[in-house]
User: What shape does this take?
Amino acid sequence: MSSIRRTLLLSLIVTVVATTIALGRWQLRRLHDRRASNAVQRAAMALPPMRLPDELAQGAPIDSGRRVVAHGHFDAASQVILRGRVQNDAPAVQVVTPFVLDGSADVLWVLRGYVPSADAVTPPDSIPLPATGELSIDGIAYAIPVTPDSGRPFVHNGTTSWQRLDRGQLTRLRAGSLPVYLLLAGGPSGAGRLAAVAPPEINDGPHLSYAIQWFGIGLAVFLFGVIVLWRDGRGSARLREAP
Assistant: This one.
């Protein structure tokens, strides 16, 4: 192997190994952030249920992961469809409906549950309405993000669906929207009248396994380079020693 090829190979090996190490370290940082977030959620879930609107009126914040009991009524006139969901290994859409808290203008968006959808975009012609009248509902509160694409609204067959919730969009739909949504507990027989969506699992995710994979790839490339360069060096030495 010529000196130029050796230099190019060495540069390629160094670049690939450095990249895999950087990616592995990035996954470890994501793992650290996820574990920190998990700790916050576990602490919130260990607290007694927060009661709305009473505690909200006292200025208490609603922590993500906190169990909430809310009193008020549903207003299904401006509910939101979330597309691209899979429930029980089948395509579905999720239904998020505003819930007006008793004696206030505050609106708590409630993920009531899901309905099957053949393309995970188009909801059925008739979605069961939530229970009517004054209600007490419970579930887990989660923060509503502000997304760079406003939740990616998409109009299909005259129906608008979103890929994800967006705080700005919900505030424009309903003044007084709180910065959290409620993942409703219950099921078809509960106040939401829909099959319930299970809360996200609190775990480490795939970050550790991804980090190990990236470090393994980097080690394999490094060893491959060492073997190739060592064999090339031995071959060059034999040629120099040949009479």
